[in-house]
Request: fold
Amino acid sequence: MKYDLHCHSLFSDGQLSPTELVGLAAENDISHLALTDHDTLAGLEEAQLAAAQHSISLVNGIELSCTWNGQLLHIVGLGVEPDNDSLKSGVRENKQRRHIRAGAMIEDFLSHGIDLSQELEVVLSGAVPTRPHFAQALVNLGYAKDKQQAFKRFLVRGKPGFVSMVWPSLHEIGDWVSAANGVAVLAHPLRYKFTRTKLVRLIDEMKQAKIEGIEVSTSNTDLQQEDMLSKLAVQHDLLSSIGSDFHSLDQPWARLGSARPLAEHLQPVWSRL
Ligand code: AMP
Ligand code: MN
Ligand code: MN
Ligand code: MN
Reply:
């Protein structure tokens, strides 16, 4: 068994179609794959069809934007029923926020003399708008040499194109995912650069909000970090997940299937899927 329960398709900020993604998963001997696009369920149907052609179990997933303590967090919902009304209306809400934010970002760029609207339309071609789409439009128009540089010069706090957004709370996200019979886990827990005390406080609040797991193994964690996250999972009785956060083939630091297996003593999130 090989698990990768966090990746993106071109329905959000990924490079590949769900079909291509599932094909790549098969090439990498992944047995269980979750597609977890940002704030959309739109790629799941295609992914399920593709998975049926390979011997892959496709877990219906989503990565939801959330605000906790004034900070943006990502919560991955796994094993969700995409037709659940409560989840669907929550996702609609988040998608709407993304469109509102994108409009405000376009305005902010315009106030800096940068008109991205046409190029963005081409780059998006119907996807849920994300900052990487803006980064790509900036690259295409020559404002940055690559997306990394675009994320240094623009799109982050204090730079042109940054628009802060209040997303739903832990409780709201936990409610949507549990209503859809899914399991919610905190994505990439070390990406937020919290102190241990703050991380523990977050975990306490997550549990009250029915968010029951954390990603212990990601493509950016080393063995020492995974050991630390494993201990947290055991101490706080959390489910453990594995996710590469794969977006595209030109990011060798986050290859599909590259996150290590979990230590034997952990309770894997798939025991509940
Ligand atoms: P958004 O959810 O629209 O704010 O965009 C967040 C996404 O942007 C993340 O999921 C990453 O894929 C990407 N991202 C965030 N920061 C960076 C960065 N510094 N360089 C490249 N990609 C980034
Ligand atoms: Mn992303
Ligand atoms: Mn994320
Ligand atoms: Mn992600």
The mean pLDDT is 98. The pocket of manganese (II) ion (ligand 4) is lined by residues 6, 8, 63, 245 (CB under 6 Å).
